Amino acid sequence: MLDIAWTPTLDTLTRNAWRLSFGGGIAPVERTPSTLISEGPHRDLYRFDGNSITDARPVLLVPPLAAPAQCFDLRPGQSLAAHLVDSGKATYLLDYGSMGYADRDLGFEDWIEDIIPTALEQVSRFHDEAPVDLIGWSLGGTLSLLTAAGRGDLPIGSVTAIGTPIDYRAVSMIAPLRTVGRFTGDRPLTAVTGMMGGLPAPLVQASYRFTALQRELTKPWFIARNLHDTETLARMESIDRFMADMPGYPARFFQQVCTQLILGNALVAGKFETRNGPVSLADISVPVLAIGGTEDVIAPVASVRAATDVLTGSPSARYESAPGSHLGLVAGPTARTTTWAHIDAFLDDAVARIA
Fold first, then answer.
1. How many CB atoms lie within 10 A of CB 302?
2. 3-class SS shares of the chain: helix, strand, coil, % to 5
3. DSSP one-letter string for 95-140
4. Helices (DSSP H) in 292-335: which residue ranges?
5. pTM, rounded to two decimals
6. Distance CA 9, CA 72 (A)
């Protein structure tokens, strides 16, 4: 006779198996409510809705290219945006949308001299010219740092860079590219993408999956082992959706990543060249928090920690580590008590500095 205590578990197993196979997924897509307050090419600006905003100093979330802006808001429990709103922060998000052939000439300078500064100034005006705290993930952190370095006139209160590599020599997964690049330059990486107008979304998605190859290979066993755990499967599903939504890179931007970051390791030297001249990270004059993930293969802790060595003009360049992979830093199961807690403490300290 079936033990009655197993009935809920068997019900859950059956329900989850059906949803994964035929039922449209474990959980519906559920985002934090937000309002589009400004739109334009690769610069849609959203404000997350909240009725308990207590902090007059706003936050602007800066995603990387080649990743959906929803990296900050995957689902309930995996949303840094919702956490910030619940903490009383007026929270805004930049969304670049998709990239196509027509965007092939867009480079770092378009973001650090135009797109991000324009959004930042808009947000500041909404809050009586208050300073804005930038929070960027991955290359979004790079863009935030370069914006602060190149535009010292902007009302930036602080910069938080999550999983943002500075020293690319510490990224072991690209070591072969750097070795080959000593002899070939960037051409093997950028010749084809130049003709295509960029790195297409399917290649970006495949590359990201390759960085988590073990996860992909063991996924069937993971599902079987967790078929009774709806929350764990919902987290897995949200990550799968995130990877499937990754857009591409414009050709010029991708070339700059290859030549200056991967091969040239420009950030550890503190300089980045743009069409309009060099940008020096030493010119950043606001507090900076760099957070590295202990299981991050895209931005290992040694690569992220290097920020404290190059940000010599910052009044406070702090490094913290947290458990998790590259995306796990922002939206993993322990992010609330690690990454998000580090951000909360840092933002409180940054406000106290000017109080």
1. 15
2. 50, 15, 35
3. E-----GGGTT--HHHIIIIIHHHHHHHHHHHTTT--EEEEEETHH
4. 301-305, 307-310, 328-331
5. 0.86
6. 32
- At residue 62, what are phi and psi to the nearest 5 degrees? -115, 105
Q: DSSP string of 3-37?
A: -GGGHHHHHHHHHHHHHHHTSS-SS---PPPEEEE
346 vs 291, 299, 306, 320, CA distance in Å?
11, 21, 18, 10
Look-up of token digits 């997350």: 48
pLDDT tens digits, 295-339: 999 999 999 999 999 999 999 999 999 999 999 999 999 999 999
d(CA 137, CA 36): 21
Cα distances (angstroms) measured from residue 64 to each of 61, 72, 249: 10, 11, 10
Given its phi and psi angles, is residue 138 left (phi above 0), alpha (psi -120 to 50 degrees) or beta? left
Q: Is the model's pLDDT at 28 over the cut of 90?
A: no
Q: What is the 3-state secondary structure (H, E, C) of 165-234?
A: CCCHHHCHHHHHHHHHHHHHCCHHHHHHHHHHCEECHHHHHHHHHHHCHHHHHCHHHHHHHCCCCHHHHH
Structure confidence by residue, pLDDT tens digits, 259-282: 899 889 999 999 999 999 999 999
227-246: average pLDDT: 73
